[in-house]
Write a structure and sequence with these properties.
This protein is mainly alpha-helical. Helices cover about 60% and strands about 10% of the residues. It has a three-stranded antiparallel beta sheet. Strand 2 and strand 3 form a beta hairpin. Helix 3 packs across helix 6. It is globular, with a radius of gyration of 23 Å. The N and C termini lie far apart (about 70 Å).
Length: about 160
């Protein structure tokens, strides 16, 4: 939850800056990498699906993630596994049977995302209104006049 009280908000900002300042260069790089891919559409979808359903196979995940390609799902699963957010179990059977489960880290990510998702849902009307204003104004705020399009008259050639 985002604090409404200005003093509390400033305290959150101060603590956030302290956390950032305490990161080494390597930790900062890791933070950026994890957030970049763990926060993408497909990764969050996989984490959510596994959180809700428990263990799922590749094809089951693909059915739950409308629009994901096989290649993108495979890449996403490999990256999540590399970061320790999911575990992959190969049953060593013919035909092949592999399934995926959230790890403790993955469950932590899911728990950490819930407040953000709740905030997005709680503010959906405000986001839509802001987008409508932006789109109506042509991407210009109220303080900047909209650009007018001028049409040059043809210049006669001599």
């Amino acid at each position: 939850m985002i604090p409404q009280d200005l003093d509390t908000f400033h305290e959150v900002i101060r603590r956030s800056q302290e956390a950032c300042d305490a990161l080494s260069e390597a930790e900062d790089g890791l933070k950026r990498e994890i957030l970049a891919h763990a926060g993408n559409r497909w990764s969050l979808g996989v984490v959510h699906a596994l959180g809700v359903a428990g263990t799922l196979r590749h094809a089951e995940l693909a059915r739950r993630l409308e629009g994901v390609t096989q290649r993108m799902l495979t890449r996403t699963l490999r990256q999540l596994e590399r970061d320790g957010l999911i575990s992959r179990r190969d049953h060593r059977e013919v035909p092949p049977r592999v399934d995926y489960t959230l790890t403790e880290l993955g469950r932590g990510l899911l728990q950490g995302m819930i407040p953000l998702w709740t905030w997005v849902i709680d503010n959906a009307d405000a986001f839509r209104a802001a987008r409508d204003r932006f789109d109506t104004d042509g991407g210009h705020g109220d303080d900047v006049p909209a650009r007018t399009r001028s049409v040059a008259s043809p210049v006669p050639r001599s």
